[in-house]
Design brief:
alpha+beta; 4-stranded antiparallel β-sheet; 5 helices; about 15% strand; binds heme C
Length: about 190
């Protein structure tokens, strides 16, 4: 009886020793595939968001920064609403926000702090992180020349208008190539 038991345990042990790595390997591969496809989808989503923002911004700036503020102010929420979908929550955030609703959520704070040290010259790549059991994609935004009109040292009339619309604005004083903020995309939880 004892020998049978020991024999059985031995087989079983080898079996577990053999099977466990296989199971682990397969599950990490599945996770990697999930992560890659999420990253791709989120990246495409951010690309389409960026395109819509830039299209509005460029057409608005033809009328000058002063007039464009209204466009940013009024159209940004509109663009965002147009992109709302069942899969993702998303937004923009920053260490220095203009619109207080973009203040970093708890999970974004350490990520913003990490990316803040990066710049266009020394960029950090976008990445996928876990937020509880959900995947989130974050992509840094660096300051381009066109951004400076409203986020650098805006001319007086522009500055006045910004201060009127956003009395608590912190999003000025940025330099070219500096880290401006992040796009973030979070998987919706199934209970949402
Ligand atoms: C014509 C003025 C104008 C220009 C030019 C402009 N922005 Fe903004 N930006 C705004 C306004 C207004 C808001 C607040 C929008 C809102 O109410 O959600 C804003 C908000 C943002 C936010 C969201 C975080 C926050 O501070 O609330 C980011 C990120 C941002 N801008 C980045 C950029 C970048 C990058 C560029 C250049 C490609 C740029 N902006 C050019 C006016 C401008």
């Amino acid at each position: 009886m004892q020998t049978i038991l020991i024999f059985y345990m031995k087989i079983n042990n080898t079996f577990v020793k053999f099977l466990l790595p296989v199971v682990l390997l397969i599950s990490t591969q599945i996770q990697a595939v999930d992560k890659n496809s999420f990253q791709q989808e989120a990246q495409d989503f951010v690309a389409s968001l960026k395109k819509s923002f830039m299209r509005e911004l460029e057409s608005g700036l033809k009328k000058g920064a002063y007039k464009s503020i209204d466009i940013c102010h009024l159209k940004v929420p509109h663009i965002q609403e147009g992109k709302i979908n069942e899969k993702f929550e998303f937004g923009r955030t920053s260490h220095k926000v203009r619109n207080l609703t973009n203040t970093p959520k708890e999970w974004l704070r350490p990520i913003v702090a990490e990316y803040r040290k990066s710049s266009e010259a020394n960029p950090l790549r976008p990445k996928v992180v876990m937020v509880d059991k959900r995947m989130a994609y974050v992509e840094p935004i660096y300051v381009k020349p066109v951004c400076l009109q409203c986020h650098g040292n805006p001319v007086e009339s522009v500055q006045k208008k910004i201060s009127k619309l956003y009395p608590k604005d912190q999003a000025v004083g940025f330099k070219l190539g500096e880290f401006r903020g992040l796009f973030w995309v979070l998987q919706r939880s199934s209970s949402d």
